[in-house]
């Protein structure tokens, strides 16, 4: 009877020890695979993903926004902007209760 009780206690202790180690190891393993996938996406995704993954945001303050790109509106042959070409215009409206 003592051997059976000792075996059951040993199995329970091993179970809880493995469970504890599993809880510690899974985040580390996931972090490793996520970094590996991020690196792989940077290589396959072209300039967008590689710029995004290697961006240096350490010198920016919280709330600071930087926009990289052209701010010029595209025009057609007649000199109209794209919204004018499609018939878009500003429409003032009143909220109806």
Features:
single chain; 97 residues; mainly alpha; 3 helices; elongated
Describe this structure in words.
The protein is an all-alpha fold and 97 residues long. 56% of the residues lie in helices and 0% in strands. The mean pLDDT is 76.
Overall average pLDDT: 76
Helix content: 55-70%
Structural class: mainly alpha
Cα distance, first to last residue?
Answer: 81 Å
What's the count of strands?
0
Strand count, sense and closure of the main sheet? none
Number of helices: 3
Order of helices and strands: HHH
Radius of gyration: 30 Å
Q: pLDDT under 50 segments (min length 5)?
A: none
> What characteristic shape results from the CA principal axes?
elongated
Share of β-strand residues? under 5%
Task: Give a quick summary of the entry.
With 97 residues, the protein is mainly alpha-helical.
Topology:
Elements: H1 2-44, H2 47-53, H3 82-85
Helix pairs in contact: 1-2
């Amino acid at each position: 009877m003592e051997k059976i009780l000792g075996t059951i206690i040993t199995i329970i202790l091993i179970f809880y020890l493995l469970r504890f180690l599993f809880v510690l190891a899974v985040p580390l393993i996931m972090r490793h695979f996520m970094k590996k996938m991020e690196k792989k996406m940077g290589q396959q995704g072209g300039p967008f993903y590689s710029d995004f993954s290697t961006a240096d945001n350490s010198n920016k303050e919280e709330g600071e926004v930087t926009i990289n790109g052209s701010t010029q509106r595209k025009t057609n042959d007649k000199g109209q902007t794209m919204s004018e070409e499609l018939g878009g215009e500003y429409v003032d409206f009143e909220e109806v209760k």
